[in-house]
Amino acid sequence: MREYLPTLGELIDRLTICQLKEVKIPNKKSEYGKEIKQIVSDINKIINESDDLEFDGELVRAIVVLSQMNTHIWVNEDNARNGDNKGNELMLTHGLNGIRNTAKNKIQEKIGGRKDYKIDCLASDFSDWEISWDKPIDNNKWNETVKNGNPGGFAFQVFQKKDSDFQIITTAKCGTRWLDSITGFDRANVKTKQISSNFWHLWMSENERWRWFQIEMPYEYQVQMNIQDKEKTLENLRYVWNWEKKDTILLYRNPFMRIKSGILQKVESWYKKSLVENEKGQATYNLSNDIEKDFSRQLKVLNDDFSTIFPHIHMKDNHCTPWSTYSLQLLDDLKITPKVYINLDLKEGNRNEYLDKWLKAVGSEEEIKRIDNQSEAALNSNNTLYRLFDKFDLDQKVEPLITQELTSYNILEHKRCKL
């Protein structure tokens, strides 16, 4: 079976060229007519077999631009062969080829698959030829996410009950939204204090019953510190966050589920959307058709270049970082032995009864009521968007890129089962 076949964009490109030749080279009209028929047949097969093709005005425009550029290139090359301003026309042809390849990529955006990433730019002398595409060729939001992400460190959160030995250590996408609602932290309105050293940054807040900490350990903490310096900076941290609590609970998640949730979290950060309850009481994002289409396109971008994009997200985005690995490192550095390890993806129905039990044991009457009355929206964020992953096998793509994280997760699972 052949593995490298022309894309839809390449077929349409060849179709426009053959159509020109059928007219411009009349003595070969029948030959080009046969080729056109074959190309049209292949295009029809691609359209009929695809569930992903988005037919809209942008696609029509890309085909029109592609056809026009091939016509202009033909005319320019014809002029160059006749000696009409030869050098200048050939420079324009290089620029028009870039527009042509961009148009093919625009077509591929509507169906997914292979693109051409070498795009020639127009010289300033030919700026009038520039096409007013509304957005960059990929409109790739992942690049911006990676660019603005943390430089490779990790962050975690602590919910510590006042006047007790009880605390929960967790990280982003590991129950934090739910814990906020139980402990009464309104993260959007709460005032925080910030304390920093060379190798950690801490934010803290408190209410009548709970203290909340978020601690970031930058990349330098992991790779540039000797043992003595690390012990010193941790001792300074201890003055702010006393982690020596005998009733310490560590929360973690199945890496595959955590990464899926982390990717879906982009709906909130990119489009400023928050979870709401629908009429069935389910957690859902109230997305317009345009936003859902754009997010689906972003998932295609990720899928098409997964091995390049994902490792950066895994290391730099707090919602996708290898928390199992970092948590083991953290426990070792702080000499903490959790009393309980809780895998948040092991549920009975929609709830993690084990975590409920521990929180009820230390909770006030009001907090126990909050636990019992938690809605599905608070318990199952992102569930309604998992369907967007149906078009590609995320687990299969992720697995070879997170071998260390899977090993660490298995260690945590062993510790959980042993206790």
Model description:
This protein has 419 residues and is α+β, with helices and mostly antiparallel strands. The chain has 2 domains: 8-127, no CATH class; 143-418, no CATH class. The protein is built from 18 helices and 9 strands. It has helices at residues 8-24, 29-49, 57-81, 86-109, 141-148, 176-183, 219-223, 227-238, 255-264, 266-271, 289-304, 306-316, 323-334, 353-362, 365-372, 376-379, 394-398, 403-418; strands at 154-161, 166-170, 193-196, 201-206, 210-217, 247-252, 275-277, 283-285, 340-343. The protein has a 7-stranded mixed sheet, sandwiched between helices. A hairpin with a 3-residue loop joins strand 4 (201-206) and strand 5 (210-217). Helix 1 (8-24) crosses helix 3. The model has no long low-confidence stretch (mean pLDDT 84).
Key attributes of the depicted protein:
single chain; 419 residues; alpha+beta; 18 helices; 11% strand
Work out the strand percent. 5-15%
Q: Helices and strands: which structural class?
A: alpha+beta
Span of the ends, CA to CA = 52 Å
Arithmetic mean pLDDT: 84
Runs in which pLDDT lies below 50 for 5 or more consecutive residues are: none
**Outline:** elongated
Pattern of helices and strands: HHHHHEEHEEEHHEHHEEHHHEHHHHH
